Amino acid sequence: MDRVALTAAGLYAIVLLRAGGTFAVGRLAGAGARRGRLAERISTARFRRAERAIQRWGAPVVAVSFLTVGFQTAANFLAGSMRMPLSRYLPALFVGGAGWALVYATAGVGALELLARLSAGQTAIGVAAVAAFLLGVCGVMVYRRRKAAAAPRDAASDES
Fold first, then answer.
1. Packing angle between helix 72-81 and helix 2-35, nearest 10 degrees?
2. What is the pLDDT of residues 11-45, one digit of tens each?
3. DSSP states of the chain
4. What does the pLDDT look like over 89-108, one tens digit per residue?
5. Distances (CA, A) of 52 to 33, 72, 89, 100
């Protein structure tokens, strides 16, 4: 159990730094946009209403975003750029980050222990599991690259 706790603590530190850094970058980007060419566009009443809604109700979204894949960076950046107060953001970061760290620590340590048991008992099964995993990752990467390469061609043919 101590490995899970140690892993969770390490992941928690990482997620606090990463998500907090994303929030800070969003905060800086929002401040720059308010002083730059976008100042007119983001000073509308509609934008201010959206900003107030995010400032008030965005904390639960930030906390839950840690249980998703791919949305958490956007949620943290948006919270920063929309000037969510730290008094609302930090509790959401601490709760959501803790949930993320626990999920990944338990699942990660569990997967590694399972792999170690498979490898210790029967090396061939362990090697086959690692090979299958690596082939799966490579397959996903190839699929995504082909899909991304085909998307611009599809868009160009739609415009014709």
1. 40
2. 999 999 999 999 999 999 888 888 877 777 777 78
3. -HHHHHHHHHHHHHHHHHHHHHHHHHHHHHHHHHHSGGGTGGGSHHHHHHHHHHHHHHHHHHHHHTTSSSSHHHHHHHHHHTT--HHHHHHHHHHHHHHHHHHHHHHHHHHHHHHHHHHHH-HHHHHHHHHHHHHHHHHHHHHHHHHHHHHHHHHHHHH-
4. 999 999 999 999 998 888 88
5. 17, 20, 14, 27
**Would you state the pLDDT for residue 97?**
93
Question: Which residue, chain included where needed, has tokens 């299958």?
Answer: 132
